[in-house]
Amino acid sequence: MEPLIRFETIAQYNQAYQQETLHPLVTVIDLSRAPSPARQGSKLYFGFYVIFLKDVKCGDLTYGRATYDYQEGTLVFIAPGQVVGVNRSPDVQPKGYALAFHPDLIHGTPLGKHMHEYTFFGYQSNEALHISEREREIVIGCFTKIQEELLRPVDKHSRTLIVSNIELFLNYCVRFYDRQFITREQANRGILERFEALLHEYLYSGKIAEEGIPTVAQFAGLLHLSPNYFGDLVKKETGVTAQEYIQSKLIEAAKEKLFDYSKSVGEVAYELGFRYPQHFTRLFKQKVGLSPSEFRNLN
């Protein structure tokens, strides 16, 4: 088994690709012009953000086996602390680009303050972004602007311009992912239908009393999706967050159970997975505008 290759700094990453370090916190690498440090079965750890623009036929990163609607290119987003696997033939030369930047580059900048909003850094590898040729040209344009800035002598404007171009690129990716959610609308509906079926079975089969209140991560796992991707998909399709959707179904189940007058409000709360009835009461009143007892008496 190949050992884990760790990249803690941008300089280490550049060195692995035999590339000069123009800036200690950011780099753009043309993968087709540099020998890859990874081999079949290798695992790569990154201590910084990396975005790979890959040729989908290259096959050198393990990011899923699904058939996608766009085949011209693929963007894979990796956050600090993540590990990716390598699965390619030794005679295959990777094609594409890598943009890597250290978290220290964006600390104290507008991008640093809302970096967490780019949820696709938490997607699983098989939820990569598949882009059209026109979208690929835009991505290459963004990478080129960053590379051109790296080639200039460093001055007081360098960091601002580099970070601004990274932010511009990420905002384009938000648009591209919105398009991808739309082009996969039929597949997404199938996921939502399975989610609804799983959630209904969980709420009404007695599992909830034994296993507790359902979570977004729980159902994302059952659907073989990352919590971030699943949450974004539900929000795009329903207009509410996955958590809000689960809570709405939980309240519907609670309303039905409250019509069984042989059970106290506390018993209903326990049947719905709440360890403390007051937590159930608080959520119910927040969503319905009435306490469970008031709702029961009103009806």
Compile the SSE list and pairings.
Layout: E1 4-7, H1 10-16, E2 26-30, E3 43-46, E4 49-54, E5 73-78, E6 83-85, E7 96-101, H2 103-106, H3 110-113, E8 129-131, H4 133-151, H5 158-183, H6 185-204, H7 207-211, H8 216-222, H9 227-238, H10 242-258, H11 265-271, H12 277-288, H13 292-298
Parallel strand pairs: 1-3
Antiparallel strand pairs: 2-7, 3-6, 4-5, 4-7, 5-8
Helix pairs in contact: 4-5, 6-10, 8-9, 11-12
Overall 3D form: elongated
State the separation between the terminal residues, measured CA to CA. Answer: 65 Å
Low-confidence stretches: 58-71
Beta-strand portion reads 5-15%
InterPro entries: Homeodomain-like_sf, HTH_AraC, Tscrpt_reg_AraC-type_HTH
GO molecular function, one term: DNA-binding transcription factor activity
Keywords: DNA-binding, Transcription, Transcription regulation
Domain HTH araC/xylS-type: 193-298
Description:
This protein has 299 residues and is α+β, with helices and mostly antiparallel strands. The protein has two domains: 4-183, Jelly Rolls; 186-298, Arc Repressor Mutant, subunit A. 49% of the residues lie in helices and 12% in strands. It has 13 helices and eight strands. The protein has helices spanning 10-16, 103-106, 110-113, 133-151, 158-183, 185-204, 207-211, 216-222, 227-238, 242-258, 265-271, 277-288, 292-298; strands spanning 4-7, 26-30, 43-46, 49-54, 73-78, 83-85, 96-101, 129-131. The strands form two sheets. Strands 2-7-4-5-8 form a five-stranded antiparallel β-sheet. The longest helix is centred in the middle third of the chain and has 26 residues, at 158-183. The termini are far apart. The model is unreliable at 58-71 (pLDDT under 50). InterPro entries: Homeodomain-like_sf (IPR009057), HTH_AraC (IPR018060), Tscrpt_reg_AraC-type_HTH (IPR020449). GO terms for molecular function: DNA-binding transcription factor activity; sequence-specific DNA binding. Keywords: DNA-binding, Transcription, Transcription regulation. This is Helix-turn-helix domain-containing protein. It comes from Thermoflavifilum thermophilum.
